[in-house]
Amino acid sequence: MSKSKQTVVIGSGAFGTALAAVFAREGEDEVMLLGRNAPLIEELRKTRRHEAVLPGVDLPQALNFTIDPSVLQTADTVVMAVPAQAQRSAALYYAPYLNGDAVIVSAAKGIERASGRLITDVLNEALPHHHSGALSGPGFAVDLAAGKPIAMALAFRSPELARDTATILSGRTFRIYASGDPVGVQIGGALKNVLAIACGIVEGAKLGESARAALISRGLAEMSRLAVAMGGEAETVRGLSGLGDLVLTGSSRQSRNFRYGVALAEGNFESVNAALVEGVYSASVASELAASHAVQMPISNAVARVLDGQLGIEKALEELMTRPITTE
Questions:
Q1: How many Cα atoms within 13 Å fall on the side-chain side of residue 103?
Q2: Where does NADPH bind (predicted)?
């Protein structure tokens, strides 16, 4: 009989808790949710509920909770489910406790603003003795935690490691597709947040479903161009982590990025906590990456300028609609 695997999910927010719940629900491997908020972890242990972010969802009995980082010493797989801008600091904080053979999976969808680097590059720098991969794709935390069918992509530089880790983390309701293209997977995951803000602006400005469909299709072209310029594959972006996630977050108010775009267009942006909106951080970085790689990304650039206060929404729409006519 093979030894069960141990998985630790770092981060007790909505997505981290949801991932830990779906991993634990399979009942085959040991799963631990590791957080730093002691009162919250104790509440989760007692009530099996995280009402603040996953209302009405019962967390499985097999899921364990702790604030003790020593659990990482025996973990085979460590899932970093903290925001993109906190991945480096979290990695450095937990590094001394990691099992030397642990595989690291980032569940963040963003680009580090300070360095302009993809998160797996950040983790490879912070944890040079570990293999780091990226998990991304369409899936709201509440659906994931409730055990609804969801599919995502998991990318490592090694396709074999991606397949092995995907097999460990997949389950009856959570299917993970392995990829050897971490650049494409992460560009899709990060830029879909920026484009979801643009979709929210279209919604808030009442420009219609046709305009949003056009934005999604042209936004996908921007994703593909940047991914290829950075060494990724266009086909990856047309999959779960790019198109799939963009369709989901660009059309639902469950998405923080979409809601923030709506609030911007309605002049009510203070109603959404921008600190929790990954697209706010990724927009300017994406614009800088586009410039450095000589890639045309008019939609992402417009979002960045709107967020930086350099461009009004009406003027941004005017500029996009008066761009020179080219071939698709």
A1: 23
A2: 15, 36, 109, 141, 256, 277-278
Task: Count how many residues are written for the chain.
Answer: 328
Walk along the chain (328 residues) and give the pLDDT tens digit of each residue: 356 789 999 999 999 999 999 999 876 679 999 999 999 999 999 999 999 999 999 999 999 999 999 999 999 999 999 999 999 999 999 999 999 999 999 999 999 999 999 999 999 999 999 999 999 999 999 999 999 999 999 999 999 999 999 999 999 999 999 999 999 999 999 999 999 999 999 999 999 999 999 999 999 999 999 999 999 999 999 999 999 999 999 999 999 999 999 999 998 877 677 777 899 999 999 999 999 999 999 999 999 999 998 988 888 888 877 766 666 6
- Is there a binding annotation on residue 203? no
- Which CATH number goes with the domain that contains 249? 1.10.1040.10
Last residue of a domain, one of 165, 180, 195: 180
Catalytic pick among 5, 192, 206, 315: 192
pTM more than 0.85 = yes
The structure tokens listed for 240 are 């779960």
Residue in this structure with the two tokens 């992402």, named with its chain if needed? 300
Say if CB 33 and CB 65 are below 8 A apart. yes
Same domain, 204 and 282: yes
- Quick one: DSSP state of residue 202? H
Q: Is 27 annotated as a binding residue?
A: no
Active site residue 315: no
Same-domain pairing of 161 and 247: no
- The reply to whether 327 falls in a domain is no
